[in-house]
């Protein structure tokens, strides 16, 4: 399509003419004038909504809202063409996959469980087997800190059944985090789920962190974006809109929970079991924030990639549903992962020298969660990915990001050893409206062509490094090393 | 006057808490005429801590058992806590601090006693007189001259001795125009924008009064300005009051320029907050920043209701309007409010920062502050008598200069490479405006400064800031000269709270200082490897 204008909301000057190309994967806009011939690429997967406005004197406007918060405002000459594009975009941006999946096993085959002695382990395996049959998930090790006091500090994912968990916690003084509200938990118990009965768990303290559910988060983001899209708002409109969106309140709640766990592990040297109602949304958020606070490793490139693989992808955060990759239930969509990235961003603002990567890295990851150019974030769980044969059919995003490491490096990074456990402040004004917004805003205003997808090719010798990198990024490898550490420690202690 | 009369107890044993997570300091507390000293004793490091008493904004004492606690809230927004042994000593020290920190006399203030090593009296005082700026203007155009009509401050007490006026206007006409303007502040040149040949003027409000008086000399002056710019040039009068406020001012003798009397000039009203509401906004913001226990919603609510960021937004967009008229519409701009000493200066100085690349250098920025704030008659002594913590009823206090610094900070955040000075410079200016060992911000105008002999008897802040050890803190390591105008965004999404200042008392400065240090390190390392010399030409005073 020729003679298309792309309106820029910032440079309010006369928009340039250009051409619009529609391919099977991208919408490409090329400016006709200018030596540089600026190109704007929009991956069709990124498009969230397409809106056609009434014809104006300029032409036929078409507004695309993307999942990475970009908004593109095109003006086309002919209404017929506009309608055709509108229809094709509607079709192309929402691929439909017909098969349905059973969510039986959410976790990758090898998982870590506490190994205290052989008998308790055997018993635990038995319990777990029953538990897995019941719920399809298993308590497993999320984080291990090589600091030793009386206890091994561990954070556990997901609730354990009420069969006889005292075996597991025989030697550990543990701390439970239930992240639903207490009332919710009681309601859940009535429905046969609920939280652990305190009587069954000796030496265990419960703590409820009030983090809201996915539906609240979704509407919060919706409100936040509405505030961002206000045309010339006054300062008070903006701030009160920000307040009513509640986005910052949620970010603070997640950070608070993460800090609480980090303190429990580091200062009180206790074990922590984290769960919410399902165990793949709030649990993942809180566990990964806590990991970042506790271990400088997770503040490096490699660490963050492993963390995302380990806590999100392998643990069955339902990327396909939460990101709305397929045309599915809109009630399952929620910016859970975006919030996690926002939390990292908050930490980066408070500790500018503690992270090896910069904000662009977060933005790039966020883009690719939605772009579906790589296989990592497809599917809802490991089972899905196995069924889809994602490992054979698609590329992983990580080697691609590693190639572009220089773009993502934080020049202020002071190295691995300078900061130990981070102790951020969550006093409201330290979680700045501006800070938190700027990540969303950055994504929203981001006007750059997405990188062209890498062409499939056979690994040659020169790619050796990439392969090594891929291997070392394997979360299971990481878990295995952790397991070795625990074994060593248990031996030295007993 | 004897300070000794006010000092009830010279010494006490005390412990000082300086803020979150800093180790407390134990030692002997001493009060001198101008300072509070804490000497940790002979066995410890000779690390002497000291606070200028003028910096104390409010003092709060609490007695518990046989010891007392004094909380000092400083004008630079820091909060200190002193634990003192002995009830009597506590009360005496609190009373002495109270008496000494509220001394009004300028002559007895610390700058008149401050004699640092390595600085000579009189240095840097003649760094930036109006003559220097006139030389720059004269290189570009012949339409302006330096008038010494105000030599004895008879025309306008708040103007410097020499001002830049249109060449075609006689001194006698200036005198009559001065009588027609509030405070004698007749229109003078603030900035000459060479690329478009347009000028920025500032003045006080015209004294039209209820009878709608006119003054032919004043009208002639503005006509000449337009004629001198370029043929067919238009003019904008930016009034920093709302139309209603301007109309009301007529009842008390003020008013605005009548449309018919000034052909070619168009009046624009851009209401900016000033005076007490601005001070209250500042007080509420600082209050909100000090509350550690509030919820997120409450904080956002308070941030909104204090309206500080709205003031920043309004100020920046008005400055953009003035700058845009000059740069893009080729129009001359006259800015005035009521007195022409507060919001007027805010707009003219910000417009220059936006347009003039030279004013964004270290020396240029100092010159700008000297010319557009200090010599232009911003009443620093009245405006900065108290900061946000004071319990005294505000009379003339207003954080206008702070608002300017905040706007500059926003500029620096949006254009991190274009300002040669960093956040440290802005913080230092804020500190020194409220309490300083230097004489630069003393008194309300040039006339008073002459009477007090400030120039000969105190040191200039600019010579203090030019010492090499200060440079790393003040300069922006990323500076690259930018010859273009920098257009800031005044949208709410682009503005931030100046955390480095407002959260001073509650936040650890450490991570951001480390980051700043690291940036310096990277920049100097890079320069070393490239073998190029650091560009220090910009730091030298301009001829």
Automatic annotation (TrEMBL), chain A:
Highest rank taxon of the organism: Eukaryota
GO cellular component: cytoplasm; nuclear envelope
Biological process according to GO: phosphatidylinositol dephosphorylation
Molecular function per GO: phosphatidylinositol-3,5-bisphosphate phosphatase activity; phosphatidylinositol-3-phosphate phosphatase activity
InterPro entries linked: Myotubularin (IPR030564), Myotubularin-like_Pase_dom (IPR010569), PH-GRAM_MTMR6-9 (IPR048994), PH-like_dom_sf (IPR011993), Prot-tyrosine_phosphatase-like (IPR029021), Tyr_Pase_AS (IPR016130), Tyr_Pase_cat (IPR003595)
Domain (Myotubularin phosphatase): residue spans on this chain: 136-438
UniProt-annotated catalytic positions: 276 (phosphocysteine intermediate)
Keywords: Hydrolase, Lipid metabolism
Pfam family, one: Myotub-related
Protein residues bound to substrate: 213-214, 276-282
Family label: Belongs to the protein-tyrosine phosphatase family. Non-receptor class myotubularin subfamily.
Protein name in UniProt: Myotubularin phosphatase domain-containing protein
Automatic annotation (TrEMBL), chain B:
InterPro entries (alphabetical): Myotubularin, Myotubularin-like_Pase_dom, PH-like_dom_sf, Prot-tyrosine_phosphatase-like
Biological process annotations from GO: negative regulation of autophagy; phosphatidylinositol dephosphorylation
GO cellular component: cytoplasm
Listed SUPFAM superfamilies: (Phosphotyrosine protein) phosphatases II, PH domain-like
Superkingdom: Eukaryota
Gene Ontology molecular function, alphabetical: protein phosphatase binding
Myotubularin phosphatase domain mapped to chain residues: 124-502
CDD domains: PTP-MTMR9
Pfam family, one: Myotub-related
Family that this chain belongs to: Belongs to the protein-tyrosine phosphatase family. Non-receptor class myotubularin subfamily.
PANTHER family documented for this protein: MYOTUBULARIN PHOSPHATASE DOMAIN-CONTAINING PROTEIN, MYOTUBULARIN-RELATED
Protein's UniProt name: Myotubularin phosphatase domain-containing protein
Organism: Muntiacus muntjak
